[in-house]
UniProtKB/TrEMBL annotation, chain A:
Cofactor(s) annotated in UniProt: FAD
One Pfam family hit: FAD-oxidase_C
Any Gene Ontology CC annotation: mitochondrion
Any one Gene Ontology molecular-function term assigned to this protein's record: D-lactate dehydrogenase (cytochrome) activity
Native species: Collybia nuda
UniProt-recorded name of the protein: FAD-binding PCMH-type domain-containing protein
Organism domain of life: Eukaryota
From TrEMBL, chain B:
Function: The electron transfer flavoprotein serves as a specific electron acceptor for several dehydrogenases, including five acyl-CoA dehydrogenases, glutaryl-CoA and sarcosine dehydrogenase. It transfers the electrons to the main mitochondrial respiratory chain via ETF-ubiquinone oxidoreductase (ETF dehydrogenase).
Residues in the signal sequence: none
Protein name per the record: Probable electron transfer flavoprotein subunit beta
Domain Electron transfer flavoprotein alpha/beta-subunit N-terminal: 31-227
Major location (coarse): mitochondrion
Length: 439, 266
């Protein structure tokens, strides 16, 4: 995004866990700050050095260690790219429990370190559940080997959980053991155009009830996001008369074991949606082929890319109650307008999209350039709204370098004090990704 | 001579259910064909044909009397017809063959279409079909049908312009190095190329309506057809695996290797 610029002079690319351990031991003795880096696709600057820290890139730690096609447990080096793992297990009819827009560059170690969410969370849960074990190099060079492949293991504190989402502030993840679900035999998707945001929640209720176990994604895109995705060529647009009068769109995906069964359920749902007196939806498009399936997804996944092409994005990734999605977007837009920052030369668009199923809203503000005026208008304004809903200021992107000062909007003093104690215990010299997560 | 009264156009669009182009093709262990237990969808060129028929109606409005889709295939081919109906065809014909039987060869398809066209009350003025099907890549049906019927043909079309009053159609064809414009008279066979149009999504209301549109079921025997293959497939194999390249340290090594491989300077 061109928002974070590191001042590092050195990148190390170890090939083995042992080499990572030696690097950490040396840096710990010499008090040299270390930033672990995966695919460098993070959105909050977690993998970018703040000053002159050494970057430890995990890119060369990129082999699959084992895969058990019966249990579906995959053990891989941290530097494996998510897409290559997906390709690796595909012939065995398994899929990764996590999928996100950056899958072609992001690495599994980074996914775990940031507890990445993504598009499959609704179905398969968060990495806190699917990661079975980790191999971590601690700041003093000790290798913590918890790379087990057990589904059940209630023996004391579950230490690996601390590293999931710690954003590399407690240690360097070098290996991951993860449970992969069997690949669905049939997938379908449909984009629905809604006349009003108020219909999203009733729709979600109906869709959840009727599709039940085959529902695998329920994504929300507001009109601005859709228009931007179309403008920047992300996926083929719906025809003009179909999108006329639509305030927002919802993408529903189903994944199941039998195509006929899934299609029947989906068709029944669509019929029941269209045949009522006051339909919740205007119209929609049901994919007829894998090509259309990808094209519909591109409209949703491509919003991120479209936003970057449109201008300089301020990205907020927040958890708030579903019913407040639109209120938050509108309030932000009105706030910017009242500050005179909406229009040419300042903020071009305020848009919202995200994972309705997970209560996760991506609030993006697209400006011509990053300016201090916009920054101060947005923060702490947005964090205060989120706090007023008892929401999270970072649902899936993490804290990184961007939101350390705002952590207190989502975490109490007691929690933060305890986090600091844990950090001290693992990393007394503060060399592990300094300046990230905790101030 | 006074021009005869303007005739309303009847358009026939043959479509085929084929292995989806996104699917990775695998040869079956017996090497008699490919694994067909994969996702199928409408042959992409046929999708362009349906789209073109619908666009012709959008341009010419009431001058187009009917758009009829037809397919020859196993019971599941009805899904392909439903897609065509959802995109905008009015009615359809399904010539059903048993599940698992080989798909008919181009000549048999052309003869079937000829028989169907003969049966249509009100006749057929334009047949729009894909230039080839992506499963067997034979690319002959349109030409054979034109030959059997003695109609004009405009193959590999990238633009179609119909003058109903003159009963003339101006078609731009894709040829090596550019386009070729030809003027044809009706009745006419058009085969579609990729650039003709971009097919639309089938919208939900139209998918629902499509379920109520008529599908006429026929068997090959009803049309006096016999689909016994004329060709015999001897063996189907996968292309040889590509061998990865190697790195050389310097120019000398490269030249030595080239010489070893028997490549000499001209």
């Amino acid at each position: 995004m061109g928002k974070y610029r590191g001042g590092s002079t050195t990148v190390l690319k170890p090939k083995t866990t042992q080499q990572v351990s030696q690097i950490m031991k040396w840096c710990n003795e010499k008090r040299i700050g270390v930033v672990p880096q995966g695919g460098n696709t993070g959105l909050v600057g977690g993998s970018v050095p703040i000053r002159d820290e050494v970057i430890v890139s995990l890119s060369n730690l990129n082999s699959v260690r084992s895969f058990d096609p019966i249990s579906g447990i995959l053990v891989a080096d941290a530097g494996c790219i998510l897409q290559s793992l997906t390709d690796y297990i595909a012939p065995h009819n398994h899929i990764m429990p996590i999928d996100l827009g950056a899958k072609g560059s992001c690495q599994i170690g980074g996914n775990v370190a940031t507890n990445a969410g993504g598009l499959r969370l609704l179905r398969y849960g968060s990495l806190h559940g699917t990661v079975l074990g980790l191999e971590v190099v601690l700041p003093d060079g000790t290798v913590l080997d918890q790379l087990t492949t057990l589904r059940k293991d209630n023996t004391g504190y579950d230490l690996k959980q601390l590293f999931i989402g710690a954003e590399g502030t407690l240690g360097v993840i070098t290996g991951v053991s993860i449970l992969t679900p069997p690949a669905p035999q049939a997938s379908n998707n449909v984009i629905l155009a809604l006349p009003s945001f108020d219909n999203v929640l009733p729709l979600y209720k109906i869709v959840k009830r009727q599709l039940s176990e085959i529902l695998s994604a329920f994504e929300f895109i507001d009109r601005t996001s859709y228009d931007l995705a179309v403008k920047h060529g992300q996926g083929r647009a719906l025809s003009e008369d179909e999108v006329a009068g639509a305030e927002c769109f919802v993408l529903v995906e189903t994944s199941g074991g039998k195509r006929e069964h899934d299609e029947e359920k989906l068709n029944n749902l669509l019929e029941s949606l269209l045949e009522v007196d006051t339909p919740l939806i205007n119209t929609g498009v049901l994919s007829q082929s894998p090509a259309q399936f990808s094209s519909l997804w591109a409209l949703r996944e491509g919003v991120t890319e479209a936003v970057s092409k449109e201008g300089k994005p301020y990205k907020y990734d927040i958890s708030v109650p579903l019913s407040s999605f639109k209120t938050v977007v509108d309030a932000t837009r009105e706030h910017l307008r009242s500050k005179g920052l909406l229009g040419d030369g300042a903020v071009k668009h305020v848009l919202g999209y995200g994972h309705v199923g997970d209560g996760n809203l991506h609030l993006n503000i697209v400006a011509d350039s990053y300016t201090p005026e916009i920054q101060t208008a947005l923060e702490p304004f947005i964090f205060e709204i989120v706090a007023s809903y008892r929401g999270s200021i970072s649902a899936e992107h993490g804290i990184g370098a961007m939101k350390t000062h705002a952590l207190h909007y989502s975490k109490s003093d007691v929690s933060i004090a305890l986090m600091k104690k844990i950090k001290m215990l693992f990393d007394p010299h503060n060399i592990m990704n300094p300046g990230k997560v905790l101030e | 001579m006074r021009p005869s009264a303007v005739r309303l156009l009847n358009i026939l669009v043959p479509v085929k259910r084929a292995v989806d182009y996104g699917v990775k093709i695998r040869v079956n262990p017996q090497q008699t064909g490919i694994d067909l237990n994969v996702k199928h969808s409408m042959n992409p060129f046929d999708e362009i044909a349906v789209e073109e028929a619908v666009r012709i109606r959008e341009r010419l409005k009431d001058s187009v009397k009917s758009i009829k889709a037809v397919t020859i295939g196993p019971p599941k081919s009805i899904e392909t017809l439903r897609t065509a109906l959802a995109m905008g065809a009015d009615s359809s014909i399904h010539v059903e063959i048993p599940e698992g039987s080989p798909s008919p060869e181009p000549l048999a398809v052309a003869k079937t279409l000829q028989a169907l066209i003969k049966k249509q009350e009100g006749g057929v003025d334009i047949v729009i079909l894909g230039k080839q099907s992506i499963d067997d890549d034979l690319g002959m049906t349109g030409q054979m049908l034109a030959g059997l019927l003695g109609w004009s043909q405009a193959t590999f079309a990238s633009k179609v312009d119909i003058d109903v009053a003159k009963k003339e159609v101006l078609v731009t064809r894709e040829i090596d190095g550019g386009g070729e414009e030809i003027r044809c008279s009706l009745p006419l066979i058009i085969t579609t190329d990729l650039r003709l149009n971009e097919p639309r999504y089938a919208s939900l209301p139209n998918i629902m309506k499509a379920k109520k549109k008529p599908v006429e079921k026929l068997t090959p025997a009803d049309l006096g057809m016999d689909y016994t293959p004329l060709y015999e497939t001897l063996k189907v194999t996968e292309p040889p695996q590509r061998v990865g390249g190697g790195k050389v340290e310097n120019v000398d090594e490269l030249i030595t290797k080239l010489k070893d491989a028997g490549i000499a300077a001209v």
